[in-house]
Amino acid sequence: MLNKERIEREIEEIEFPKEDVFNAIDRGISRGKKRTYQSRMKKAGVFSSAAAAAFLASGLLFAPVSNVLAAVPVIGGIYEKYSMQIGQELFSSGLITGLDETAEEKGVAVKITSAYYDGNVIGISFLAEGGNPETDEEGPEAGYNIHLFDGKDQSQWSASMGELKETDEGYAGAVEFYSPNAELPENFTLPLTFNYVNGVHGSWKFDVPVEKIPAETFALTGESTFDDYKLKMNSMTKGAATTLLYYTVELPLKGKGDTVELTVFDNDGERLSKRNADILSTEIQDGKVIKEVRELLSSKIDENIAHLTVKPEIRMRDDHALHSLNTNSPFTVESERFDYQIQVNEVQQDGNEISVDFDISGIEDGAFRDDILQNFADFVTLMPSDQVKRDDNNELMMNEMIEHWVLSDQAVRIGDDLRFKSTFQVEGNANNYDVMVPFDSFSGNSLVEMEAFEASISSVNQ
Questions:
Q1: CATH code for the part of the protein at 4-211
Q2: Most C-beta atoms within 10 A of its C-beta, which of 332, 358, 415, 449?
């Protein structure tokens, strides 16, 4: 379980862009007064425009644009403004490729000014001239929107987008893309389209040439076990500003949705920054789940490093649990894997309004903050019984069910105990609904420590 001291320690180690976050919150509050959101799912998190997660996909075709190298002094400042660590490191090492590719439409000119490709991260910077940021209040928070297509339908790449910032040269922006693919070509062309820039909707198309910066691959030796869980390090690819770790995780069948999360330190005990972990393959062997994982660290590693210190932790996943309201109360809804449970004390219906009074139990004192407990209670939902869907493995098909969730406005806490009351607006009789309990929000916030170890670095392969 996470305790208070550990939470404080973890928070101290987080690189937090406080000013950007608070500015984004202020803008979000301002815009929120003008907009109506139809689902609480949209309030699940507040994001900073300097590091907003985006998923980009399309089926568009792109026209090539001529590639001309150019030195643009503003490039280094752009990456610094957005606290893009990889871009800053590569710029200071002279490894950023200067570009001068321009597309114009509707009085707005967009120019790609630089690009880099290190590890599986591709970054670009750009300048925009023209437009008016005040003309379209319904535009994206960043001030622009990008559509990405890599030749495959339904392709999704994550991205960090820095909002447009006015400079002497024009409105500047930067984006980092992360490819989930196992490998990308050494020389890669990134096809992307801007479809909104600085208050103007349009289509600014580019094929951006990016050349992968040479990297070295090393063998990694080291492992850790805990009950039926095992972590084994395999190799490391060291880029100019990033590091890719490759490792194998063994899980029990009942924990096939669990993850092993790593905290990694270098020779000097400096913690390395984490970015993404991708599962490259999953197999079931001898009653165990075997996952091959690649993890990106956005930290440069010293050339003479001899080992990494790895501290692994298991994040055990639970699932939602359902129980029909067509039963006498009180009744209990239990987690399948843990001691968590709720007791439904009373269910009342008045017309189209159903109220559910429940207690949360099975939780150690101080295990979770009040906001986590409140969030758990808020997402105790109702589900029409005839819309509950399971796959061949009897697992809930949440993506097909989510549109039928019935959420309360907010669970009201009663007294100082873990007792809550939620009120739902429904159609029909309470007997036709299940109460759905999000036990995964508790399991997702608890970690089990595995034994830390040193992973030796050896046998360089070119």
A1: 2.60.40.1630
A2: 358
Q: Output Rg (C-alpha) for the chain, integer angstroms.
A: 25
Do 149 and 60 contact (CB within 8 A), yes or no? yes
**332 and 324 in contact (C-beta within 8 Å)?**
no
Judged by DSSP in three states, 180 sits in coil
* 4-211 shares its CATH topology with 216-316+447-461: yes
List of residues 6+ apart from 126 with CB closer than 8 A = 110, 111, 112, 113, 172, 173, 174
Find where tokens 């990134």 sit: 190
Cα 288 to chain centroid, rounded? 27
Give the model's pLDDT for residue 93: 82
Instruction: Determine whether 143 is exposed, middle or buried from the number of CB atoms within 10 Å of its CB (0-12, 13-18, 19+).
Output: buried
Edge-to-edge strands, sheet with 187-197: 144-148, 187-197, 200-211
* Per-residue pLDDT at 377 exceeds 70: yes
What is the C-alpha to C-alpha distance for residues 240 and 119, in angstroms, rounded to an integer? 8
Q: Which residues are paired to 176 by β-bridges?
A: 123, 160
Alpha-carbon span 363 to 218, nearest angstrom: 44
Element housing 13 (H / E): helix 4-13
Question: What pLDDT does residue 59 have?
Answer: 27
pTM beyond 0.85: the answer is no
Q: Please state whether the peptide bond connecting residue 330 to the residue before it is cis, i.e. omega within 30 degrees of 0.
A: yes
Measured distance CA(305)–CA(283) in Å, rounded: 33
Summarised one tens digit per residue, pLDDT across range 35-49 is 333 334 333 332 222
d(CA 411, CA 407): 10
At position 230, the amino acid (one-letter code) is: K
Integer Cα distance of 338 and 251 in angstroms = 17
What H or E segment, with its residue span, contains residue 6? helix 4-13
**Which of 309, 324, 111 lies closest to 222 in space, CA to CA?**
309
Q: CA-based diameter of the chain, in Å? A: 74
Average pLDDT, the chain: 79
Which homologous superfamily is 216-316+447-461 in? Answer: Conserved domain protein. (2.60.40.1640)
Residues 87-126 have pLDDT tens digits of 888 887 888 888 888 999 999 999 999 999 987 788 999 9
3-state secondary structure of 189: strand
Q: Map out the domains of the chain as residue ranges.
A: 4-211, 216-316+447-461, 321-443
Structure token pair of residue 235? 């190799």
